[in-house]
Amino acid sequence: MYQYEHDKENLMARLKRIEGQVKGIMRMVEDGRYCPDILQQVAAMTAATDEVSLILLRSHINGCVRDAIEQHEGDESIEDLITVVRKVIRR
User: What CATH number does the domain containing 25 carry?
Assistant: First the structure.
């Protein structure tokens, strides 16, 4: 079981809200809404997905990374973590 299982209900609720935001943005584009209004919704959706990423990162660190360090196998796990963080912060 992954550590995020403890946050699963919260994560699923957030993901469902994000799904609703995406559908709303799609409707806005289809309806030809004002660009800044659409961009504001995209920014809100991005913030919501960033929060999901942070919850999952915290879970990964508190679970998998901590376990690997305690088992003296932390080097590879830390390198994997850095790779994931780079992707999350888009670098």
Answer: 1.20.58.1000
What is the C-alpha separation between 63 and 31, in angstroms, rounded?
45
Cβ atoms 59, 87 nearer than 8 A = no
Q: How many domains does the chain have?
A: 1
Global confidence as pTM: 0.85
CA distance 25 to 41: 7
Task: Look up residue 36 and give its DSSP letter.
Answer: H
How many CA atoms does the CB half-sphere of 32 hold within 13 Å? 0
Query: What's the rounded Cα separation, in Å, for the pair 50 and 89?
Result: 9
Please write the tens of the pLDDT for every residue from 37-80: 999 999 999 999 999 999 999 999 999 999 999 999 999 999 99
